[in-house]
Amino acid sequence: MTTWREGWRSFWVATWLGWQVEANWTDPWIFIVYSLLKPLARAVILVFMYGVITGAAFDQPFFPYLYLGNTFYSYVYAIMTGVSWAIIDDREHYKTLKYLYVAPLRIPAYLLGRGVARFLTNTASVLIMLGAGIAFLKLPLDLGQVQWGLALAGLGVGVLMLAMMGLMLAAVSLLTVHHSWGVVEGVAGALFLFSGAVFPLEILPVWLRPLGYAMPVTYWLEVMRRALLGQPLPASPVLSAMSNAQLFAIMVGLSGLFALLALGAFRVCDHLARERGLIDWTTNY
Amino acid sequence: MTHDPVLASSSVPLARGWRLFLQSVVARAYPRIIGQQREKSWLFFDVLLPLLSVAAYVLVYRAMRAPEDYVGFVVVGGAMLAFWMNVLWSMSMQLYWEREQGNLALYILAPNSMMAILLGMAVGGLTATTLRALAIILLGSWLFQVSFAVVSFWGLFLVFLLTMVALYGMGMMFASVFLLLGREAWAALDAIQEPVYFISGFYFPIRALPFWLATAASILPLTLGLDAMRQLCFRTGASLGFLSLQVEVGILGLLALLFLAGARFLLAYVERVAVREGRLTEARR
Known about the structure:
The complex is a heterodimer of chains A (about 280) and B (about 280).
Chain A (H helix, E strand, L loop, with lengths): L2 H21 L4 H27 L7 H32 L3 H6 L4 H8 L1 H21 L11 H28 L5 H14 L14 H5 L2 H14 L7 H4 L3 H32 L10
Chain B lengths: L4 H5 L7 H22 L1 H24 L4 H25 L1 H8 L2 H6 L4 H31 L8 H27 L4 H16 L11 H7 L3 H13 L11 H33 L8
């Protein structure tokens, strides 16, 4: 079987498996509520914080910046954990990673497939949050003004970029003990802070801002805001001064760089894990 | 007098009654306190992860030019979040994990009280988490220049103590409840984690919530505990409080009694089920 066909099959099998692992513990309605609770709670916290301070002035330009940034940031956590936690789950909990390694599978494709379930459930919560924003919070999102091409291309590149970042974390997880979920949480938390998701990077101390501008997530979130609102928001002077093409080009360039780093990291860590006998490791503490 | 020849010849006196109870508490608290300090990466992640969230929410308030007391609200909320996480994952889930690892049967077979085991977990978890929460308060206050205006240190200590007794009592009760569940236990805890950040007002005063929602949220000890602590710690705390301090202290006292009694009742029920059905200690994936 060719490499591509094997990779494709690994991806689809993992997608189905990932869906079963995520969803088959309960009936579909409970699963839908469960999937929506977490991202909705995060959004509502920010809405209340904003409402308390501004006296519910949801028509100010900072609100759509905050709301859309937080809404799309939920993909960061969902996809990165979906891909990288598969290592911990399969190695430590289900104890199946060793069997997967001897099966005719492409492990990176398998891991990417395991992230699809969380991508799908998160997409549902993103759509609900966008709808709630329009209906109840004066979110200035006019479907006629949306730049659909930019939005779909941005979403596609962004999802691939996040999946690659998840693969990088999965590579690290191959070499670390089972509480390495902390690494994923730490990276997601740091990205929340340094990607300008809920506040402009100009709020950060000057010496920390370059870190934010080096992250592809920063440009991705700005692309998504701009594509949905049809115009740049004045909240971040640096990003709003860039054209759509500039933003998109930077996002694609940085995403490509991170993808290369992720594939390289996975190759190295996978080799080390095999050499050190860590594939069937159970740390159990 | 024992009929077991090995125990009869042992020079170690057999503990019974309250002595056995206290020894069990200490024995179960010991690995919580010592073990958590031994694994340095846990210390790093337990302090860093809440601090990242605290920093993000502080900067959101700064971007909105909120009064500085709100920054202090977030820092205190971030520190208390460490306790919520500890209760959720290291108390409520603990018996479930002990079952997965095969230790639960040993706990039930041993001649000590399960209540002592849970109390030991609570005491150990509370001690270890207090150190982390202090680190978050100190680092957060230093990083974001929080100015406290403590009205009464004794009052603050009393509120903290009552909140912790009620919170860990609730954790002990949840430990029994979640033991009755299978794989859905993990999902249930994961699902309530962030909604509780919202309804307990970790990042904003609960007075901003609709009255009936804030009243319903008061069943969670952290809701009123946080509100009371903020009333005692900040200049604007009392004016932003939900109920008067005396009422909140009274309710916290009642919650402490209610949850401890609930834990005792549910634990007895779980032990009865374990003996009757003999299936409770089987791992269910």
